[in-house]
Structure formats: structure tokens, C-alpha cells
Amino acid sequence: MRTFIAFTLKNESLSKVTKIQELIKHLNVNLVKKDNIHLTLFFFGNIEEEKIKLIIEIIKKIKFQDIELYGTKIIYLPNPKKVSVIALKFETNNFLDEIINEYDKEIYNLGFKRDKKFLPHITIARVKNIIPLFNYKDKIKICINNIKLFKSELTQQGAVYTELFSYK
């Protein structure tokens, strides 16, 4: 089962993100559906179902409270010359860093390791063709209010996320 842990946003924060999506929709990109907007904490890829219960126990164990984050700019992944994802990049803070470190330790104990440094971002669009780069300089403040475990199924219409567990 293809799974990941993600932070989800309060409704007013979701609205802020969708307003930014409106600014780039003319670029002929595939906008991420509002229901799929999240900030990935850890992507597991395909895992055995018996690990799901262990991951849920980790989510329950680590203390969490609402977190405010500040978006600083639009980024192009993997890089501006070969764009497949447009994302909003967010500044980290001490509380977020602590949560990431705690999760990384616990997840490592289950046999998982982060393949690259955590980059706090929200994917807002996927790109299939060459596009002009869009410059966005306004700061955006969002509030994260949940941690969720999702199952991700890839379909021809895009990814379908199913919530497996939610923790507030």
C-alpha cells in the first residue's frame, strides 16, 4: 500500500492556497484539487499493511498542536529548468523542526529513512509541458491543524488519497 503522513490545513489556509492556484491556472498546469492539498511530513512509498498500525501508534505518540507557517515563495521541482511540480515553500520553525526530528527517529526505528532533507512545501500544481516561470513574492501564513496518514492510489485522473488515520 502506497502511504504518506501529511499535515492538513485549516479551511481559511486552504482558501489562501487556492487563491494562489488561481494566479497560475493560466499556465496550462494541473492544479492540485482542494481536497488533496497537504504538506507531506513523510512519504513511505509501498509498505506492508501490518506497518500501518505501527505508524498510527507513532502518530498518536508525538505531541502536536496547531502550527503557523509562513510561505516565502513559489518553487519549481525538481528544478526550474525541468519543472514537474509547482509548490509553495514554507519557512521552518523550532516546533516544526522538533516534530520532524521526532518522526524521523521513530520512523527510522520501523526501518524507514528519509531519502532527502525535509523541505516544507505544498504542491499546488503538476506540470507536463514547458511553462514560463511565475514569480510570486507575497508571504502567505497558513495554519496546520491535523496530522493524517493517507493511502495514495495513482490513477489516470491523478492521485486519489484515502485517509487512514487522523490525529489532532
CATH class: Alpha Beta
- In the CATH classification, which architecture applies? Alpha-Beta Complex
Main β-sheet: number of strands, strand sense, barrel status?
8 strands, antiparallel
Query: Which structural class matches the secondary elements?
Result: alpha+beta
What integer value in Å does the Rg equal? 16 Å
Q: What's the number of helices?
A: 3
Low-confidence stretches: none
Mean pLDDT: 93
Secondary-structure element string: EHEEHEEHEEE
Provide a compact summary of the structure.
The chain has helices at 11-24, 50-61, 94-109; strands spanning 2-9, 30-31, 39-46, 67-79, 82-90, 121-126, 140-155, 158-167.
Give short descriptive properties of this protein.
25% helix; 168 residues; globular; Cyclic Phosphodiesterase, Chain: A; alpha+beta
3D structure, described in words:
The chain has 3 helices and 8 strands; from the N terminus they run E-H-E-E-H-E-E-H-E-E-E. The protein has one domain (2-167): Cyclic Phosphodiesterase, Chain: A (Alpha-Beta Complex), CATH 3.90.1140.10. The chain starts with a strand and ends with a strand. Strands 1, 2, 3, 4, 5, 6, 7 and 8 form an 8-stranded antiparallel beta sheet that branches. With 168 residues, it is α+β, with helices and mostly antiparallel strands. The mean pLDDT is 93. The protein has helices at residues 11-24, 50-61, 94-109, and strands at 2-9, 30-31, 39-46, 67-79, 82-90, 121-126, 140-155, 158-167. Strand 4 (67-79) and strand 5 (82-90) form a beta hairpin.
